[in-house]
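Just scan my protein:

. . .
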Amino acid sequence: DLSDDHSQPRVFINPTLVSTSTPCMVEESCLSVPDYVSVVRRSADARVRAFDRDGNEFEEDLNGMTAVCLQHEMDHLEGKLFVERLPMLRRLFFNATAAGRLRRAANG
């Protein structure tokens, strides 16, 4: 996320969700999963507690893509990818597609 004037990245160190809104469905992708886009359930609004670069704790209300992006990045901190949030059938399709790509890559 960027600052209000889009000149500096914003920093959320050790973020935790204090509260979230009703979930909604959003389209996501990830550099860790190239060429794959799917819809996952995320909260459109979230209150987060974190630390800034100077070690000061703060709380902030986030909404829209800022809230969604923070939740996505927090999943990475827990070792999760967005595909783990997919409904079972979509996840099975993703796994089959990914396995096929790996086989094709291995066979040259």
